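// run 5 | inverse folding | seed 20
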């Protein structure tokens, strides 16, 4: 029996203007949730509600807000298996990965519960006597957060937890195709004792969300926008917030390179490429885009990698598999387009391509009623190919070659994204030269392009984002504004840079 869910604003169910059916991509005829979709006015109203609630929430002492975050972590931990199972059911993520994703919420809460006691400012010496200088972190106000559904609970926690801890209120718009998972997560957050209106969840399509965000920004009821999704939509969000003199927190797509040096441990590199390229069916923003492999080990690497891909298990995400189905039909349709980018000069080395079906099976697996696709490795990719230059959200990885490390770095940077990257080498000089030259916000050495930890900054540059960072203490700058205060207790007006005592040196002195 499918769930019936609607937006929740100010602690109350909100009226719906339409309906969306969230289905199980492993069995597309199975409806996971019937979702009531809100319109732009409801989104804008939620932002006004959040604005009213935020005033009182900001007055709650930060250490007390930290204890609320601690409660959220314990609630998620106690419900981890059920939440992970729902994620698997709704988006087809293998259960082991879904459980790891839920663990990420707990880790994020564990980190930020202590930040409630560490929202430090500074006392700073003044250039004048009897005057003290201070800095404080203040909440920004209301954060409107729009998230994708490939990580339907972990990535939202990177926004929600620090935003709430810092004293902000939030209006969260999750992806429709992951609505049941998001609603379950909202309920866990609400059970922590958050006051009504401090966290609101609004289900809406993209057009209504964008219009609602426009209205809220025009009304002045949103002071921060967080967005995880495509580079194309991220540009529009950035333009919109820029018109209102705001800087959005943008976490966008990637074309993440993996460089294989001639001294790399190839079995380890193959293992990393397999997980980076095809875990979550290649539907991570940090998924491997192109393997850039040294010409001296190209043939051996490709042979090992292709064999590993052919032997990898694709199937029911409730089982022990590398990957399950694609997230939703719209991603399957888009992936079909990416497959048309394979050109005559390319060589598919991984076996079959396209949808897994009775007439195109993967071993004894015929795909059933799911959105399952063969993982694809394309060798012979050139730097001018669309497969090299553009993000391909799905289970397809390109391979190209290089001669020198400088050439590899140039190829790694050429597509213009800058999220994640990886190098496999046993020479520290190679690792540090790559780190220095690559444009990515994140670098892995002898590890996959995917994987984040709650206390490390996450984010990208170029087409992958605007330099904002999530996770760790760095995200605090997204959800607070620095306020400077000076207190002059001299009893007279002291003018900075004008009434400063001068001590004259003898600059002509010589020994």
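// decoded
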């Amino acid at each position: 029996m499918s769930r019936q869910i609607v937006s929740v604003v100010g602690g109350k169910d909100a009226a719906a203007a339409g309906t969306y059916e969230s289905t199980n991509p492993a069995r597309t005829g199975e409806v996971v949730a019937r979702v009531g979709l809100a319109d732009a006015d409801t989104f804008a109203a939620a932002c006004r509600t959040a604005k009213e609630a935020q005033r009182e929430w900001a007055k709650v002492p930060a250490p007390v807000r930290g204890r609320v975050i601690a409660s959220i972590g314990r609630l998620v931990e106690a419900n981890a298996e059920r939440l992970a199972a729902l994620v698997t059911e709704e988006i087809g993520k293998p259960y082991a990965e879904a459980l790891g994703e839920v663990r990420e919420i707990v880790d994020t809460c564990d980190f930020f519960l202590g930040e409630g006691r560490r929202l430090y400012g500074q006392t700073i010496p003044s250039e004048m006597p009897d005057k003290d200088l201070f800095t404080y972190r203040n909440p920004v106000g209301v954060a409107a957060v729009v998230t994708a559904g490939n990580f339907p609970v972990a990535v939202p926690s990177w926004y929600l937890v620090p935003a709430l801890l810092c004293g902000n209120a939030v209006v969260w718009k999750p992806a429709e195709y992951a609505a049941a998972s998001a609603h379950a997560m909202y309920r866990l957050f609400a059970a922590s004792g958050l006051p009504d209106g401090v966290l609101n969840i609004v289900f809406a399509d993209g057009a209504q969300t964008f219009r609602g965000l426009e209205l809220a920004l025009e009304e002045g009821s949103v002071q921060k926008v967080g967005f995880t999704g495509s580079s194309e939509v991220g540009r529009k969000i950035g333009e919109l917030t820029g018109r209102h003199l705001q800087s959005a927190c943008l976490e966008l797509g990637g074309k993440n390179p993996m460089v294989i040096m001639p001294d790399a441990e190839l079995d380890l590199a193959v293992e990393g490429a397999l997980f980076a390229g095809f875990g979550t069916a290649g539907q991570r923003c940090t998924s491997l885009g192109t393997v850039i492999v040294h010409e001296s080990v190209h043939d051996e690497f490709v042979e090992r990698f292709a064999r590993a891909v052919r032997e990898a298990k694709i199937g029911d995400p409730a089982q022990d598999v590398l990957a399950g189905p694609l997230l939703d039909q719209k991603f399957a349709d888009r992936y079909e387009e990416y497959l048309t980018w394979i050109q005559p000069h390319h060589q598919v080395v991984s076996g079959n391509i396209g949808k897994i079906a009775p007439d195109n099976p993967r071993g004894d697996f015929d795909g059933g009623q799911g959105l399952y696709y063969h993982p694809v490795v394309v060798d012979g990719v050139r730097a001018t190919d669309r497969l090299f230059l553009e993000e391909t959200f799905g289970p397809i990885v390109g391979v190209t070659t290089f001669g020198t490390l400088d050439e590899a770095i140039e190829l790694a940077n050429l597509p213009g994204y800058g999220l994640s990257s990886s190098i496999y080498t046993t020479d520290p000089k190679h690792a540090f030269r790559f780190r220095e030259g690559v444009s990515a916000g994140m670098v892995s050495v002898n590890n996959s392009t995917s994987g984040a930890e709650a206390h490390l900054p996450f984010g990208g540059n170029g087409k992958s984002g605007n330099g904002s960072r999530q996770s760790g203490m760095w995200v605090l700058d997204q959800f607070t504004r620095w306020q400077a205060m000076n207190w002059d207790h001299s009893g007279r007006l002291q003018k900075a840079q004008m009434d400063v005592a001068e001590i004259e040196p003898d600059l002509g002195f010589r020994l």
